[in-house]
Design brief:
One of its GO terms (molecular function) is pyrimidine nucleotide-sugar transmembrane transporter activity. Its main location: Golgi. This is S35A3 protein. This protein has 332 residues and is mainly alpha-helical. The protein is 82% helix and 0% strand. Helix 6 runs antiparallel to helix 8, helix 6 packs parallel to helix 10 and helix 13 runs antiparallel to helix 14. It is globular and about 60 Å long.
């Protein structure tokens, strides 16, 4: 049992480490791919989302194939038994998948109606909603220090992401009405993000199905909802230039990193939890900003950024520091 525990602990920190690497490299390559001046049309973000889902499904099928002794017969049986013959289990994942799709659209609404500072700061409430859902849905117990560290983390991330550019005239002209719409969109996105993450964690930890089967189920719905997004937002452009317009080597790197993200997040939720996922993501925001300063040279850190970075790092240690004695009760 002790060796099992130490293995889970290793997997927990390994998955969190990979998540920091994946999020950081995704942010940097995505920013770089979006700022490159290329001839012809730029790649469609909506199509990249679908392609990433399909790649994620393919990777999970390969992992299930490997887990079943590389036998095609066994793979077919597992997929039939776990996905087709258990429609209720599969449908359970339509909920988080649908919520994630809704959330992506809400953030689009939010950014159209809010200035960047208000958006970034308000969106950090998802750190707290995740903790609240973890406590109410999973019965997680958090100490006073851990609640405090979550508040510090929220404030720190808000400072880190505080935009340095003065608002443009268009941003200043936002009416009170449209700001209310934007704020409502962010608040609903915060609650839906917290709920979907914890709901997925609950499903992963309560059932016997493997994390990869669950990811295939999530990916199938993600691809369907994503295709709807392509049709609604970019239908016209896809008819003109095709689904893969503007794709180049860098686009494929971005899409692959996005697909890897889906796998890593599932592993993090399985072996760690959603709250720790929040800390890993926050650390990667700081890392990617610093790398972007030294490498892409498109960002100059301000004192506000450094203050926020210190808060995030302090919160990470504070959360872990209090969690350790509770996690390992003294053995008689």
């Amino acid at each position: 049992d002790q060796s099992d525990n130490s293995m889970t602990l290793k997997l927990k920190y390994l998955s969190l480490g990979i998540l920091v690497f994946q999020t950081t490299s995704l942010v940097l390559t995505m920013r770089y791919s979006r700022t490159l001046n290329e001839e012809g049309p730029r790649y469609l973000a909506s199509s990249a989302v679908v392609v990433a889902e399909v790649m994620k499904i393919a990777a999970c099928i390969l992992l299930v194939f490997k887990a079943n002794g590389c036998s095609f017969g066994a793979l077919r049986r597992v997929l039939q038994d776990e996905i087709l013959h258990k429609p209720m289990e599969t449908l359970k994942l339509a909920i988080p998948s649908g919520i994630y799709t809704l959330q992506n659209n809400l953030l689009y609404v939010a950014l159209s109606n809010l200035d960047a500072a208000t958006y970034q700061v308000t969106y950090q409430l998802k750190i707290l909603t995740t903790a609240l859902f973890s406590v109410s849905m999973l019965g997680k117990k958090l100490s006073l220090y851990q609640w405090l560290s979550l508040l510090v983390l929220m404030v720190g991330v808000a400072f880190v992401q505080w935009p340095t550019d003065p608002p443009t005239k268009a941003q200043k002209d936002l009416t009170a009405g449209s700001q209310v719409v934007g704020l409502m969109a962010v608040l609903v996105a915060c609650f839906s993000s917290g709920f979907a993450g914890v709901y997925f964690e609950k499903i992963l930890k309560e059932t016997k199905q493997s994390v990869w089967i669950r990811n295939i189920q999530l990916g199938l719905f993600g691809a369907v909802f994503g295709l709807m997004g392509v049709y609604v937002y970019d239908g016209e452009r896809v008819r003109e230039h095709g689904l893969f317009q503007g794709y180049n080597m860098l686009t494929w790197v971005v899409v692959s990193l996005q697909a890897l993200g889906g796998l890593v997040i599932a592993a993090v939720i399985k072996y760690a939890d959603n709250i720790l996922k929040g800390f890993a993501t926050s650390l990667s925001i700081i890392l990617s900003t610093l790398i972007s300063y030294f490498w892409l040279q498109d960002f100059v850190p301000t004192s506000v950024f450094f203050f926020g970075a210190v808060l995030v790092i302090a919160a990470t240690f504070l959360y872990g520091y209090e969690g350790k004695p509770m996690a390992n009760p003294v053995k008689a």
